[in-house]
Amino acid sequence: MRIHEPEFKVRLATAADLAEVLSWLKSEWDGSSGFWGNRKMIQDGQQAGNLIVVGNESIQVSGFLLATDSSMDIMEVRPELQGRGLGSKLALQGLHRIEQSGRIGLVIQCQPSTSIPFWKRFGFHEVERGWADPEDHLEFAFPKVFELPASRPVTEVRVELSRSNGDVLKRGIFISKAVSIDDGRLQLAERIAAYVEDGDTTVAISVGGELVSSKKAKYSGAVGVEYAYPFIRLDAVYP
Could you tell me the pTM of the whole model? Predict the structure, then answer.
């Protein structure tokens, strides 16, 4: 007979949960690796309402995530419970919070680097090379799909992101269908949101094969581009 296991749920961490997290981290600390060295950050996070845990009736704290409205800083699941979807529960909760805050995206540091495949399953990508970010950083921009009026003519919007020397970014070409709305804007079927190296990245926008704008990200607001380092977002084009 199969024994039913109580459901694992995510919740805001209490003071008792914090004590359990710290005890667990201290027990696995070997002097160099592990998150015991970040205990002050975790303590402050719990007091600020930024620490969540996942657990059930049997195991109150099976994993935890320290996250704010703009970042996901520390996450760990007890080794004996990994591979059961608990990390995914925490990650989805953290991503939802950041998305609800209106952020375009986020950059995370993966330590240990063996966690990189886990985050890539959620759609994270390696950051552009050639600048200060090390190999263990990943980026994620929040997607969104819009329902377009069925009766309107459809055109194609193409966005190309490039450096000042003309080199197109590794993930620098995006294409979306779009239709003209009554206020004159072209509403995209899918949001174009992307990581850029800085505000000097050129954002070239073509509509129906015709170039309508080619400006630096930080100067592209007039055509609908929202820039918040290190991301751009485009939901509609104002040609």
Answer: 0.91
